[in-house]
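Proteins fold reproducibly. Look at a sample protein:
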Amino acid sequence: MIEFVNVSKVYNNGTEALHDINLKVPKGEFVFIVGSSGAGKSTFLKLITCEERPSSGQIIVDGQDISHLRKGRIPYVRRKMGMVFQDFRLIDHMTVYDNVAFAMRVVGASGKSIKKRVPYMLSLVGLQHKAKHYPTELSGGERQRVGLARALVNNPEMIIADEPTGNIDPALSFEIVDLLNEINRRGTTVLMVTHEHSLVKHFHKRIIQIHSGRIVADTNDMADSYAPPEEYAARQEARMQADSDYEEYDNAEGRFEETEPQETEPAPSDERAEMLEYMTDYDEEARDRFNDEPTLLEVLSEDGEYEEEPPIDIDEAEDVPPQVLRRR
């Protein structure tokens, strides 16, 4: 799905953000990306979304070389991606329904498809009753769930989440990642930058640690010592057998097909331009909350042992979607 081959990125001021990165992320994998402030995590995501171009090396996404993709082709690559941001990036003057529907209008979906798909996605994240509310009327956790619904509404092949739990309560962080985990189980690739080490330990996914522009650890290389506990695997198998909440998502009639662009295309409307800008404009400044980043081994172990962190007490959390309660 994603492959970096000897990729380096040097900015105009001489800063080397990434150095000789070699990496493969297969289709359907869930990857946590961790690292200290300025390590190169944001640059890594920007290269995948074509916001930045590599100084050297090759980047392949879904079989296509995007290293030096011409500008007119970039929007079609991004249609394969759903993006979730730390600061939500919702449009305040639009209702929850319209924020999610707008992502479909941008790619030219029909009104019939929008009327069918948007209510379903809002129910999936437990916000069908907030469809007519505005973002300013929602809690942080609810706004992030709207952002997640927006990212999923076009049935993308991958989700790119840039610290999606950074601005919500710790108790709700598990809820958001659990929703991402459910979508991943259905075949969608997920890349998530995070500093929540409790999440990293709890969900037992692949972890890539970046430090000073280099990949210094990857749990793909630690498979023998990073096998999930048997009880975790059993719980995942039970979910696969019993959970039918995502049936419509699984059986959606394909993804929006890429069409060949014309040599000259009409300028996008102000709304389309605004959506494209806020959906792809990552912050330039690092937003890390810890100055001293533990090593990957410190994240995965305590006193040399790898243990799963106790699951969140959902009874104490607020705004828990119905499907999360049903999975208990």
In short: The chain has one domain: 2-250+275-326.
